[in-house]
Amino acid sequence: MSTYKIAVMGGDGTGPEVTVEAVKVMDAAADKFGFKIEKTEFDFGGERYMRTGETLPDSGVEDLRQFDSILLGAIGHPDVAPGILEKGILLKARFELDQYINLRPVKLFPGVECPLKDKKPADIDYVVVRENTGDAYTGTGGFTLKGTPNEVAVQSAVYNRFQVDRCLKYAFEYARKHGKKARGVGEENTLGLVGKTNVLTYIYDLWDRAFHEMGEKDYADVRRDYYHVDATCMWMVKSPEWFDVLVTGNMFGDIITDLGAITQGGMGIAAGGNINPEGVSMFEPIGGSAPKYTGMGVINPLAAVCAMGMMFDTLGEEQAAKEIEDAVKWVTGEKLKSLAAGKMGYSTSEVGDLVAQKLVD
Ligand code: IPM
Ligand code: MN
Questions:
Q1: Ligand lying nearest the CA atom of residue 283
Q2: What residues have a C-beta under 5 A from ligand 2, the ion?
Q3: Ligand positioned closest to the Cα atom of 288
Q4: How far is the CA of 145 from the centre of ligand 2 (A)?
Q5: pLDDT single digits (tens) 51-75
Q6: Fewest C-beta atoms under 10 Å: which of 60, 170, 184, 335?
Q7: What atom of ligand 1 comes closest to residue 90's alpha carbon?
Q8: What residues contact residue 15 under an 8 Å CB cut-off, 6+ apart?
Q9: Are 8 and 71 in contact (CB under 8 A)?
Q10: Which parts of the chain sit beneath pLDDT 50?
Q11: pLDDT on residue 313
């Protein structure tokens, strides 16, 4: 019997509440599919920071390295200045554990109200592979003349070929394995590069060359498309059915995946994985800590449940991942009135129960 060591970081606000539900479903899946989960909880987050001044200490990173995977609730506390926890915990974990892929499916589930006119689940079903270690996120830059009328601020988008290549390789492999043809819903598996080659003529030129070189050499079976990022935003609204697998840099990936999330029903359902294919990955609902709903039992835990499903997929428990997703689809399609906090028709824990129960039925 496989045993998985999972670190659970509930984090801030509603993070711990949704994580409890994800763990509930995780335990149900372990029972059903015959594997064992050893969980260890960590309290990194705003409360601990206010108590101790510590975000994610280096020793915490070393601890996290010992696990097969990490489940994260949410990071962000109303009493802590913006940036401290995000950089000190979330980005630190992503960088130190070299989770160089941020995998964000954009998938409309049945029964979910979609803000795009006439779009159905078959129309919104694609994945964004967001590079997760480079770009404007590296902190390369600084100020001169700070605080004066002539102040200058520079923050550079930085990529090296190695980072681009490893991300592209993941994306091509992903498209080959999970693209539309592989899923039996299209004629081809397609990888679309999202860039801005008309203005960012250095970094997206590098991406573009690397993309076509690798595609031509190793992935002739995967069709290659290119979209400028601004146009991508239009098509994500107007014709999301065009997309299959998209790959892009960190900053564009951050922005377009929030747009993607709202087209699939919002933060109650959108999940992502910070993946190090050779190391320890971390899965999270991509919504924030929703402080105003903390402790009320009204927040939607499905994004956390879906994140946990993605974790199983990455651990190689593909059947468990698939059945968790099917159970979530059943809950959105047959049970919930809305995905919005307080409007689901069920409490947070009842939604967790519904998924767990459906899974074992
Ligand atoms: C996300 C978030 C983070 C990011 C923030 C909280 C640092 O927006 O996971 O998309 O920009 O990556
Ligand atoms: Mn974001």
A1: 1
A2: 254
A3: 1
A4: 30
A5: 999 999 999 999 999 999 999 999 9
A6: 184
A7: 7
A8: 9, 45, 72, 73, 74, 75, 289
A9: yes
A10: none
A11: 96
